[in-house]
User: Fold these one by one.
Assistant:
Number 1:
Amino acid sequence: MTLSPTLRSRFRGCLVGAVVGDCIGAPFEVTGVGGPGSYDIVQDFVNKFDVEIDGPGSEKLEYTDDTAMARCVAESLIANNGQLEAKDLAKRFADEYMAHPRRGYGYNVITVLKRLGDRDLSDVFAPARSQFDGGGSYGNGGAMRVAPVALCGEDEVERVIQNAKSSALLTHSNRNGYNGAVLQALAVHQALHTSTDKMNSEKFAENLLNTMREKVECQTSDEGTANDNKKEAKLTTLMSQVKKRKVERDDVYCQRLESLCHFLKSDPPAEEVASVLGNSISAHNSVGSAVYSFLRCLNPVEGLHVQSPMERTILYAISLDGDTDTIASMAGAIAGAFHGIESIPEQWQKLCEGSDTALKQADRLYEIITKSKTER
Ligand code: R7I
Ligand code: MG
Ligand code: MG
């Protein structure tokens, strides 16, 4: 029987896993890997680490906006004793962006971050709501930074859902934008609380699907966005006009998870995974791929010559091509929450900028969460 990592190790694994996914995936976000399933290219890149880390003047792999924003989320939770305080988080996002704007932020989110820095802003959710003509962004920026929220969820799924949504709404008010953050947070939370000997990938996915279906995507008219309401009004008109026409389902994450469950049985090639679950900067076309990378890589993958499931997860996620830093970062957070810090090679940690800060933040969050548990 394999011993499950301790909870502290899982906290560390989660935040450091997110950083290494971001740093190792980032160079490929620009160049691509040459199509989904190009395992050799990613493997060759990682194999050079041994040489580079010992060589003179070896440079670190830089983190991008994914890590910059996740650090803000962690810092805000630490400063507020594990509670999500939207105003405080908004200020940290804005300050971080102003201090280091060149971290590869999404093209449109920049407008929101600048407005969040306005001292007179009374509603911190307002700038995000005006994105994309009032529809809000469905980019994966809410999901890519949400892992620390999941660490503070304790054993309350509702709290994870609520806080993931609030943290995302500061920049992503589109239903698919914030629900992507919810699914990613639920995946991290579930990985964190699944013991190694009880892991069953199909059950893990089914459980996520049930939670999304029952607690998240069932709410077709929640407080969401003006656009949600507009869309629904349009939909009603459309439905009454063309009664027999098939209306598209708006439970996109449930659809992705249904495909994911099927893929765990059929094991399709990487091209199919990328085309069905997605590899783009949209949340609904990337979060499912991150979850799948973690679950698929619990077992060996043909053509990917690496023994450790944690390392395999990162390499597989990058090999899906497209938004490589973000998919690998999200997959790394989930995998790290399950496999623990011991599963992340020390040379990766040394080489990836920001691993040390992630480690410290994980420890602070762990202390806050365990202390509040013993006090109750
Ligand atoms: O979501 P966001 O923070 O970007 C995150 C991504 C990650 O891959 C990072 O690594 C970084 O590279 O960027 O930033 P947004 O600007 O809100 O969304 C990202 C992109 O998604 C936008 O620039 C658009 O191209 C696209 N997008 C949309 N396009 C059309 N209509 C998001 N929402 C919409 C939309 O409603
Ligand atoms: Mg990035
Ligand atoms: Mg990205």
Number 2:
Amino acid sequence: MRVLLLNGPNLNMLGRREPEIYGRQTLSELESLCVEHGQGLGFDVLCRQSNYEGKLVEWIQGAGDKYNAIIINPGAYTHTSIAILDALLSVDLPTVEVHLSNIHRREDFRHNSYVSKAAWGVICGFGPQGYLMALDALFRRFSPTETMEA
Ligand code: CA2
């Protein structure tokens, strides 16, 4: 099982600024945690980050025949990007949208997510643990005994 983990703009700054909102863990620490946790579940997790919307679109487009699922924190593009929404709809892979912060407790402009319309599920407010929760949810979805594909 192959999982593509995408992080959007400014998430490369994790651990360096605004620790009160986004925590002290760096992006590479977070990615290592996800790769290790994925290994434990039998997943091959590939991690990518970009500050560019088009780059994220290209990775999503290319995922269709190579990956079984996508985990994405689109950063601020969550609230603006129909392009990322359309790319996710076009590949039709189970997608979990993750946010470190609880976007619903923050400014009004963060309350809407275009990406959620293409997401199987959305996790927000649990910090880095949210990514591990997303992997666990996908594991259960792909387990033959579970029925979570709705
Ligand atoms: O809570 C999240 O994960 C967000 O996707 C993070 C985005 C924000 O625009 C979304 O509304 C919610 C921002 C990512 C910025 O990341 C930084 C990390 C450390 C220091 C500065 C920015």
